[in-house]
Amino acid sequence: MLTQTLGFPRIGRDRELKRAVEGYWKGEVDREALAATAAALRAEHWRMQREAGVDLLPVGDFALYDQMLDLSLMLGCVPERYAGRGEPGLETMFLMARGGVGVGAMEMTKWFDTNYHYIVPELAAGQVFRPSAGRLAGELREAARAGYAAKAVLPGPFTFLALAKTAAPGLDKWSLLEPLIEAYEALLREIGRECGWLQIDEPVLVMGLPGTVRDRFRPVLERLRGAAGKARLMLATYFGGVAAQADLLDGLAADCLHLDLVRAPEQLEPVAAKLPKDCALSLGLVDGRNVWRADLGRALALGRRAVELVGPERLLVAPSCSLLHAPVDLAAETALDPEVREWMAFALQKCGELRLLADALEGRDVAEALGENARIMERRRSCAKALNPAVRDRAAAVTPEMTARRSPYSVRNEEQRTRLDLPELPTTTIGSFPQTTEVRAARAAFKAGKLDRMGYEQAMTGFIRRAVEAQEAAGLDVLVHGEPERNDMVEYFGEQLDGFCFTKNGWVQSYGTRCVKPPVIYGDVSRPRAMTVAWWEQAAAMTKKPMKGMLTGPVTILCWSFVRDDQPRSATCRQIALAIRDEVADLERAGAPMVQIDEPALREGLPLEPENRGEYLDWAVECFRLASTGVSDATQIHTHMCYAEFNEIIEWIAAMDADVISIEAGRSGMELLEAFGRFHYPNEVGPGVWDIHSPRVPGVEEMVGLLEKALRVIPRERLWVNPDCGLKTRDWPETEASMRNMVEAARKLRRPKA
Ligand code: GLN
Ligand code: ZN
């Protein structure tokens, strides 16, 4: 029984790739040195996987910046504005990824429901593809020279088109399917000569295909299989199940189908029933998206069922998806609590689990290793560090009253209006202010023990004062303290909550050379003490204006962490919600008239399969309400969301019942507003009028224009004025100028007081 991975992290054990690429950008690393580092990393990653027991090694999963960008280049799908600027290879690629003099970067967005960002392919009217598989063919030869049986990996045409955007208005991207398939055929003819297996990733299948192209799926796959020649074709699906797409699997023209049996174990039976007799099945039994050691007993039960269903000869064992989303090697984590550490497995350790599973399924004697795994699972289940009976009791005792405000919005609004006495179109910001070098240096010095607590707090107080004074000077109505004490909006809370731990080197790629080290939720979550109240009190004492409390919401904390896999995510989220609820209560008690609970990741947690979305939205919204509704009517609850498609979940956003939502509108602009208008969003809204991603200062008239548009769909009594998102990446001069303009824009549109 073969083992395989669908992809491996490319950043390197010590983020060598990041350093090489950034060095190249700075001119400190030359082209040859960069190529050498990349080749050395590929070789090292194949060696690591092989030594851990992986048979089929992925080639083509490596990318200097992003695999979708590489695919655009392989297809010759390069927007006009980048073509002919410098030589076509490396320079063009980085220009597309990052922009350059006189040309912006291509759009980037999240890869399905992960926190990995890919470069969005861009299609022009009459798009001509110029396929060239040179890079991938070269890497395949590289692997062959090193003596590995290689499998070429590339995202498939349906996923490519589903994720692409059209630059030409009115162009239906699916109309480009035929020329795209021809390009793929050309690529596959070239690549098929260099390898035994060809893996085509079609995660989009999990979401379903648009009705107009559904019929094309099976014939297209047949053509691809033909083009692959003697190489066998593997269709990889992941991030959910494809049982609902069973009609597409009828007579599937593939030599192997990969299933994510971690996210969707229930698909095994129905899909196996459909599987053509000559098609192998790759069982995604090990979670590729977390840091946990697999429960081999559970995985084996599923594997054994697969043996019964299709026989052992046709099975492969694999992680659920590419290991890109897991950190590289647990060996580096020498500082973790050993009790918790033994529950973990990073990418390399997961490769070892595959071999064990395959051996067990083949009937080899691995009883000892399985016994050890079972003992670890048992220790994990009974570990007192992870168990907090008080938290469990409390979560079990949540009543419906705890997830609803005392009165409806209309009643609350009256009270809040009287209490706050805000002008029409009140102005505010989203929370963070410029994280200058001084701010970062003070935090780093404190963390390193070079600055004592008093010195640190004094420094923070200074930054808070600076932020408050700037907001007063600009004339804002609702102030924030500026979040100088927060390195990251999730990490900050994770560090103060019980049930979280942090790795030393558990980096995963977020985009390009940017890596993140998500907190790990390993046990029951609780809040030993208030987390933000002292900062809020300080800030509130500096001004007569209302000061917003500032928290990260439970769903976002969940989505941006590695979450324990031994209970439903909803149960973990509910525990976090209770902790945030207590923080909200403490802020209210301290006198905060408003508390903002950010949920920018709410959309990202949405399951890809349409049929599973309702259940998620139910508990996600409930958790937000559990966190936010414990307050009196006079306390105003804000939330904030950004950089995602919110139109389709607007009813659920309304169901969160925040008094005010500030929402990024730069990206989807009018569309978002139309959705709010069409739906008659019942509470207050602040659509962002200032794009915080650029140092450009938006003009007064420009913002007036956006607000006028907003006023066409949102009644003026319910419209707020704010930027798209937090200002942490900005500098002070442009921030101050932009705030002044924003306040000026709001004032221009206010009616004189009666
Ligand atoms: N309050 C956070 C900030 O302003 C919100 C960030 C976010 O939405 N990602 O930085
Ligand atoms: Zn935001």
Shape: globular
Q: What portion of residues belong to β-strands?
A: 5-15%
The number of domains is 2
- Record field, number of beta strands: 22
Low-confidence stretches: none
Q: Number of helix segments?
A: 28
* Category by helix and strand content: alpha/beta
Provide mean pLDDT, rounded. Answer: 96
State the CATH architecture of the largest domain.
Answer: Alpha-Beta Barrel
Bound compounds: glutamine, zinc ion
Distance between the termini: 80 Å
Whole-angstrom Rg: 27 Å
Helix content: 40-55%
Brief overview, please?
The chain is of the alpha/beta class and 754 residues long.
Structural write-up:
With 754 residues, the chain is of the alpha/beta class. The chain folds into two domains: 2-385, Alpha-Beta Barrel (TIM Barrel); 436-749, TIM Barrel (Alpha-Beta Barrel). It contains 28 helices and 22 strands. The strands form six sheets. It has an eight-stranded parallel beta sheet with strand order 1-12-11-10-9-8-6-2. Strands 17-19-20-21-22 form a five-stranded parallel beta sheet. Strands 13-16-18 form a three-stranded mixed beta sheet. The structure holds glutamine and zinc ion.
Structural features:
754 residues, 5-stranded parallel beta sheet, TIM Barrel, 28 helices, alpha/beta, 2 domains, binds glutamine, binds zinc ion
Strand-helix topology:
Elements (H helix, E strand, L loop, with lengths): L1 E2 L12 H10 L5 H22 L4 E3 L7 H8 L15 H9 L9 E3 L6 E3 L2 E2 L10 H12 L4 E6 L1 H7 L1 E2 L10 H16 L4 E5 L9 H4 L2 H11 L4 E5 L9 H4 L6 E5 L7 H7 L5 E7 L9 H15 L4 E5 L18 H4 L5 H15 L5 H16 L6 H8 L12 H12 L16 H11 L5 H22 L16 H4 L3 E4 L6 E4 L2 E3 L3 E7 L6 H9 L6 E5 L1 H6 L2 E2 L5 H21 L4 E5 L14 H16 L7 E6 L8 H6 L4 E4 L5 H11 L4 E4 L12 H14 L18 H18 L5
Parallel strand pairs: 1-12, 2-6, 5-7, 6-8, 8-9, 9-10, 10-11, 11-12, 16-18, 17-19, 19-20, 20-21, 21-22
Antiparallel strand pairs: 3-4, 13-16, 14-15
Helix pairs in contact: 1-2, 7-9, 11-12, 12-14, 16-23, 18-19, 19-28, 23-24, 26-27, 27-28
